[in-house]
Structures are given as structure tokens and as C-alpha cells.
Write a structure and sequence with these properties.
Layout lengths: L1 H34 L15 H15 L18 E7 L6 E7 L8 E3 L3 E7 L2 E9 L4 E10 L4 E4 L2 E9 L6 E7 L11 E3 L5
Antiparallel strand pairs: 1-2, 2-9, 3-8, 3-10, 4-7, 4-9, 5-6, 5-8
The chain binds fe (ii) ion.
Fe (ii) ion binds next to strand 3.
């Protein structure tokens, strides 16, 4: 009986997770629809340049933060060596990919700009975000400032070197963040980060 009960509970958790993923995808689809101009192609090259799109992605992330079933226990599991990324969903039209990132204490991303638009929200723990300014003459980035990003923090950025940052877990507890990138699922590891060097 206990086994049957736990099988039912696992099945209902999977159903709730699928519904939460569908809600987030629906909100992102709506952000694309809101930014589309009559007669324009369905997927503009860089929708992040439209303010309505950025607003829509932020709203989708805010809704996702309040959805406890979106990120499963398995998608909150970290790795000892470096921050771990779990693909949660990918748009069938290749317009976006959704992932959780799990950061153990001491884990950090490289300093990077983005090849595409992206948004993220902090689900658990506190990340530190360091911002940089690109110096074309020196072909490198200068540190501007760092700030803590607590649970509930939401950020959105367009592609390009006007937005350079590094995320790190400088705390003693693990962190989980939710990310949405403007790429197809299989391009997430290769077509998002534009890694840059510090200026010397
Ligand atoms: Fe980033």
C-alpha cells in the first residue's frame, strides 16, 4: 500500500511539474506575441530590443518564482566541481530554453556578456552579481560593482557587451537560480555566454 501511495504521489508531482512548465512556457510565448509587430516575422532577430518583451519575460519569471512545482528536487541537485545546469524545458520553435542552475558555495560563472537575450531569477540562497564595463580600446572588462541577489531577485539583459556580469555564490549555503535564454535547448551550453577577459 505504501509503495502504491508513493507512486501516486510521484505521479501527481510530475503532473504538477508539467503544469508549472506549461505555465512558464505560456507566459514566455505571450511575451513573444506581445512584442510582435503586425506583418513582422514571428521571431524577430533580437526581441529583447522591444521593451514589451523584456517586461513580459520579467513577468514570466516573477510568476515562475511563485510556482513551487516548477523546479523539481532533481533539478535542484548540485555538483561538487562547478555550478550545475539542468535543462527544464525548451521551446519547440527554438526561441528559448529554460534551465535551473545550482551553485554550491564558492562556485562562480566566468565573466561574460551574452550572445542572446537572457533573464534569470533567484529561487534559493543568495548569489553575488558583479557587473563590468567593456573597454573597446583595451579589449577587456573593468569591474564596476558587486551586489547581492537575494531570493526573488529578477534580472533581464539584452545581448552584447553593454551587459557584462559574473554570478558567484559567495555564501555558505547552496543557491538555485532559474534562467531563460533566447536559444534552442541544444544551444544552451554553446550559444549563450560570450566570455570576456578583464582589461589589463
Ligand atoms: Fe549571464
Amino acid at each position: 500500500m505504501l509503495e502504491a501511495a508513493s507512486a501516486v504521489s510521484a505521479a501527481s508531482a510530475a503532473v504538477r511539474h508539467a503544469a508549472a512548465v506549461a505555465r512558464l512556457c505560456g507566459a514566455l510565448d505571450a511575451a513573444f506575441d506581445a512584442g510582435r509587430r503586425p506583418g513582422a516575422p514571428e521571431t524577430p532577430a533580437d526581441p529583447a530590443r522591444h521593451a514589451t518583451f523584456a517586461k513580459g519575460v520579467r513577468a514570466a519569471l516573477a510568476q515562475a518564482l511563485a510556482d513551487p512545482d516548477l523546479v523539481t528536487a532533481a533539478q535542484r541537485e548540485g555538483s561538487a566541481e562547478k555550478y550545475r545546469r539542468h535543462l527544464i524545458a525548451a521551446d519547440p520553435h527554438g526561441r528559448y530554453a529554460i534551465a535551473s542552475l545550482v551553485w554550491q558555495p564558492g562556485h562562480a560563472s566566468p565573466i561574460h556578456a551574452h550572445q542572446t537575450w537572457c533573464g534569470y531569477a533567484v529561487l534559493e540562497g543568495t548569489l553575488t552579481e558583479t557587473l563590468y564595463r567593456w573597454d573597446e580600446a583595451r579589449s577587456g572588462a573593468d569591474t564596476v560593482r558587486s551586489h547581492p541577489r537575494a531570493p526573488g531577485a529578477i534580472s533581464f539583459g539584452a545581448s552584447g557587451r553593454a551587459n557584462i556580469h559574473r554570478l558567484s555564490n559567495d555564501s555558505a549555503a547552496s543557491c538555485v537560480s532559474l534562467h531563460v535564454y533566447g536559444v534552442a535547448g541544444e544551444q544552451m551550453a554553446t550559444h549563450v555566454n560570450d566570455i570576456v577577459a578583464l582589461a589589463v
